[in-house]
Amino acid sequence: MLVGAASVGAALFTLFTLHQIYLDRRDLPDLGPFTRFEFPTIGHIYDNNGTPLIELAREYRQLVRYEAIPPIVRDAILAAEDV
Question: pTM value?
């Protein structure tokens, strides 16, 4: 009787642990924007004339093309990576 109860307890503990490790996704970040390759961007609020009133964002990022980055900045990034 005691061995059976210990076996059931061990099985329940194992199932609970496996559920927590492999199936419980409550504390994980949303992977949707990452899989769609969407970076956080800056939101702009405009008035009726189209003049920007405020910029809102958690992170203020601006997407730039490679050609728009000055060569000295590109060289500095490469030099920092080589260290």
Answer: 0.33
Cα gap 45→60, rounded to integer Å: 15
Residue 9 to residue 43: CA distance in whole angstroms: 53
Q: Which residues contact 55 (CB under 8 A, 6 or more apart)?
A: 42, 43, 44, 45
The residues, any chain, with a CB within 8 Å of residue 47's CB and separated by 6 or more, are 53
Written as one string, the DSSP assignment of 55-75 is EE-SS------GGGS-HHHHH
Q: Kindly report, residue by residue over 19-44, the tens digit of the pLDDT.
A: 887 877 777 777 776 677 666 677 78
Instruction: Say if strands 43-46 and 52-56 run parallel, antiparallel, or are unpaired.
Output: antiparallel
